[in-house]
From TrEMBL:
It comes from the Bacteria. Residues 39-85 form the Gp5/Type VI secretion system Vgr protein OB-fold domain. InterPro entries: Gp5/Vgr_OB (IPR006531), GpV/Gp45 (IPR013046), Vgr_OB-fold_dom_sf (IPR037026). This is Gp5/Type VI secretion system Vgr protein OB-fold domain-containing protein. Pfam families: Phage_base_V (PF04717). It comes from Ephemeroptericola cinctiostellae.
């Protein structure tokens, strides 16, 4: 009878540990320690979208509420499977037409499925590194700030200028 109670207790503990919600306490390299109630986990990895030739990396943040899965209820084999919103960390959007990635510094990437718009709101420099070129295919290209072009420019159509054109010697021309 005592042996049966011990096995039942072990099974109940394993089932209770299979899916847990905790808070990330620390992150180092590819491992995080998660506070699970009054106990801290052993260092564990987190699930990613891709982890082979193509890979994706985004560490959980300290203080982030996460879902911990422990196969067989063994916490030593546990990993972080995702995160949950909290009052102090609400969703980046609740619009079902939008996919939004919001960063801690305020930068955002927004795709609106109904309009087709893709918007980058960034706080620093936007860089495109493309060794063989960048090809924009659009009926119009609008630049609302200044432009500094460090190489020759080739124009395949007519040009219109709303201001004066000045060459490198300061000569005005049309």
């Amino acid at each position: 009878m005592s042996d049966d109670l011990g096995r039942i207790d072990a099974l109940e503990r394993a089932v209770a540990n299979m899916i847990r919600v905790g808070v990330v306490k620390s992150v180092e390299g590819i491992h995080a320690i998660v506070a699970l109630g009054d106990n801290d986990s052993a260092p564990m990895q987190w699930a990613v979208r891709r982890a082979h030739n193509d890979s994706d990396g985004w560490s959980p943040a300290v203080g982030e509420q996460v879902i911990v899965l422990a196969p067989g209820g063994v916490l030593e084999d546990a990993f972080i499977d995702g995160a949950l919103y909290r009052d102090q960390y609400p969703p980046a959007t609740v619009n079902p037409d939008e996919h939004v990635t919001r960063y801690a510094n305020g930068a955002r990437l927004v795709h609106n499925n109904s309009t087709g718009d893709l918007t980058f709101e960034i706080k620093g420099t936007f860089r495109v590194v493309a060794p063989t070129g960048v090809d924009f295919k659009s009926p119009t290209f609008k630049q609302s700030g200044g432009a500094d072009i460090g190489q020759d420019i080739a124009v395949g159509g007519d040009g219109r200028f709303g201001g004066k054109v000045t060459d490198s010697d300061g000569n005005n021309g049309a």
